[in-house]
Amino acid sequence: MKLALGSGVAIAAASLGCGGKRQHTTTAHPRYWVQILLSGGHDTLYTTDPKSTPEVDSMVSLPSDPRVVTTGAGTGEIRLGPHFAPLARWGSELTVLNGVQVRTVNHDTGHKQFTHLKTNIVDGMPTALDLIATHRTGQPLGVAYLNLSSRIMHSPAYFGTADAFYFGKGDIFEQVARSSPDELAALAKALRRQASDLSRSSPGWREAEQSARYLGEVADFFEQVAVVPRMEIAESSADYVAQTMSESFDRALWLLEHDLCCGVVVDLGLLGWDSHVRNETKQAEMNGHFVQFFDDYMAALRARKNRHGVLADRTVTIVGSELGRFPHQNDMLGKDHLPQTSFLMAGPGIRPGKSFGKTGRRMEGLPISYKTGEAGAAGRVPFLDDLGATMLHLGGLDPERYGYSGRICDFLLHGTS
């Protein structure tokens, strides 16, 4: 069983400090962060960047369902495609950034970049939420990584998966479910003893110090889990993929509601959006499941609270893919990889009800102003690195200190100076 904490990356994070500080401050520091990966690559024409026939060249393969739902807050309002249309009721709370360049068409690289919200990464580098979690207050865990595909189980905070078909049972949630409070307390005690032994046996060895920190934080987690209500998993669907998605959202909400961690990263679908064959059918299936459970998730954030307040008021949510889909169908009615995608966001500090970023007649990203988010020849196309820098800034960190050289997207932020 592989379990440890994002805050244990403090040692590694400190080594990344570089450059001078930007003079940016923020008035909103969210307590919780959730990253949701639509693994495989969602087709933005069906989701966050729909187009009509007059808006594109003939080479662009449009959805057979031409619906475009407009929602949001007036100027810059959000346009949702046919698959995301059911999310229109949340339009005043959502934000979209289209045309984001990710600089890869490889799933493995893209998955790692997604967790870091950054390109040009190396294995072992702390993720964006790992860094933010070093400044958390009170939660035993930094970041919990749920349901990640096997190729990116690189984090010591890996929590296991709801996908028992591919990965079997026995993850951390099932360990907690079958353990009594006394057993969890005993486990915490054993972990503290291991942490102490490791610290004494290898003084000054950075990896040993980091591992000892991990073990101590895991012990904190088990002690706190022993006194909170057990997680209840509902049977939401007879469809295996849908049920796995539902459980993943339930797990994330349970961790936040009981203040067990600062951040959660969830991989949905295990490459289910990778639609090289029959793109429209596959995208419809995966997006249909996603919008159902994301709608439930958004409602749950508003219904659940803890001593820090209503979860919706304390939680930033970021939804996206590691790469996008090429605008033209291949010979198998599928769409291949594109190094560009879009992101959906919500939460405190994010300017709500607006869509930013522009794409052209061939779905290519266009330059935008980093003040307004509107198309502008004097600007440039947005990059994943910009989103990462913006989220670190929103979390109260100086992005440049941690190697995030992207530009802060002022247009995405609400209540900043």
How is this structure best described in words?
The protein has 417 residues and is of the alpha/beta class. The protein has a single domain (6-170, 241-412), classed as 3-Layer(aba) Sandwich (Alkaline Phosphatase, subunit A), CATH 3.40.720.10. The protein is built from 11 helices and 13 strands. The protein has helices spanning 10-14, 107-116, 128-133, 164-167, 172-177, 181-201, 206-225, 240-257, 279-303, 311-314, 384-394; strands at 32-38, 69-71, 78-80, 94-101, 141-146, 261-268, 305-306, 309-310, 315-320, 324-325, 337-338, 340-346, 354-356. It has a 7-stranded mixed sheet with strand order 5-6-1-9-12-4-13, sandwiched between helices. Strands 2-3 form a two-stranded antiparallel ribbon. Strand 2 and strand 3 (78-80) form a beta hairpin. The protein is globular, with a radius of gyration of 21 Å. The termini are far apart.
Task: Quickly list its features.
417 residues, Alkaline Phosphatase, subunit A, seven-stranded mixed beta sheet, disordered N terminus
Q: What count of structural domains?
A: 1
Largest sheet: 7 strands, mixed
- The rounded Rg comes to 21 Å
CATH architecture tag: 3-Layer(aba) Sandwich
CATH homologous superfamily? Alkaline Phosphatase, subunit A
Question: How many helices in DSSP terms?
Answer: 11
Mean pLDDT: 88
So what's the overall shape?
A: globular
